[in-house]
Amino acid sequence: MSAKPRLFVTRNFPSDVMVRANKTYETTRNDEDNPLSSADILERSAGSDAILCAATEIFDRDLIAALPDSVRMIATFSVGYDHIDVSAANEKGIVVSNTPNVLTDATADIAFLCLLGAARLAHQAAATLRAGQWERWMPSQFAGVHVTGKRLGILGMGRIGQAVARRAKGFDMQIHYHNRRPVEARGLDEAIYHQDADSFLAECDFLSINCPLTPETKYFINDESIEKMPEITVIVNTARGGVVEDAALIRALKSGRVAAAGLDVFENEPNLNPDYLGLDTLFVLPHIGSATVETRNAMGFKCLDNLDAFFAGSALPSQVEI
Ligand code: DGY
């Protein structure tokens, strides 16, 4: 019997995933789930054939260059791969895979939770109640922004953007989107494509950010772009924190230029900018877009399907191609 491939597993992934990983691979694990520095990753990947990581580990060019030559694949437990310098990996002959499809619905659900939570001031209302400060029903208290029938702008019409659009149809929202190219897909027949960012921003009663973080999308939301949006707008981000310049959004929430924001992601995670904390119009979650048991298992199994295919010499179900 040939030896099992050696797999360095950077996080404590769901137990069903680890059971399967341990059957097929000789694993080096991080059962304590400690954050790992580049030095830790280098030390622990010694002798490994592949690495199973999450979006919490940054594989920049320097780290990739320093990885042992034995490492031939990095499978990330995420659809986003902005934490991996894929060009540097490919130049070194390292294949990278990710987990598209399996987290589409879970993430679109959280986008809608953020949209509704922000629009309807859910944080403020729930916090008041829990603090024992809700005195009585009042006609104008907790009056948020009406959702049904409004215009929803979707930045990034990939799988998750499309799933957000389908959910929005249930709220009779008119869909506008900005994407590299127009998309034909189920539920998008009436969606309006904007090649131009400015014409798109002008239609965003609500904005849902569903694009990857790239040099082009970094700080798409900033002081200038906010000024191009309608007066009472709600910004929702379930993609990557870096698409929004937090300082600009905080200024706009403080001044009322942006009515509310729903964020599942933010800059410098896990450290939320403290200036957000006093803002009642912010509904914020700790990056739980894909956090259902079913989805997290499916993400782990997808990583293992990719790794198994690689070591069998077959095409990967989801290799990152750039
Ligand atoms: C993803 O899959 O990219 C999620 O954001 C988790 O990192």
Descriptive overview:
The chain folds into two domains: 6-102 and 292-312, 3-Layer(aba) Sandwich (Rossmann fold); 104-284, NAD(P)-binding Rossmann-like Domain (Rossmann fold, 3-Layer(aba) Sandwich). The chain is globular and about 70 Å long. Helices cover 33% and strands 15% of the residues. It is built from eleven helices and twelve strands. Helix 5 crosses helix 7 (159-169). It is an alpha/beta fold. (2R)-2,3-dihydroxypropanoic acid (DGY) binds at residues 55, 78-80, 103, 289-290.
Features:
322 residues, alpha/beta, Rossmann fold, five-stranded parallel β-sheet, 15% strand, binds (2R)-2,3-dihydroxypropanoic acid
Helix/strand layout:
Blueprint: E1 6-9, H1 15-24, E2 26-28, H2 38-44, E3 50-53, H3 61-66, E4 73-76, H4 86-91, E5 95-97, H5 104-119, H6 122-130, E6 151-155, H7 159-169, E7 174-178, E8 192-194, H8 197-201, E9 206-209, H9 223-227, E10 233-237, H10 246-255, E11 258-263, E12 282-284, H11 293-312
Parallel strand pairs: 1-2, 1-3, 3-4, 4-5, 6-7, 6-9, 7-8, 9-10, 10-11, 11-12
Bound molecules: (2R)-2,3-dihydroxypropanoic acid.
Brief characterization of the structure:
The chain has 322 residues and is α/β, with parallel strands linked by helices. It has helices at residues 15-24, 38-44, 61-66, 86-91, 104-119, 122-130, 159-169, 197-201, 223-227, 246-255, 293-312; strands spanning 6-9, 26-28, 50-53, 73-76, 95-97, 151-155, 174-178, 192-194, 206-209, 233-237, 258-263, 282-284.
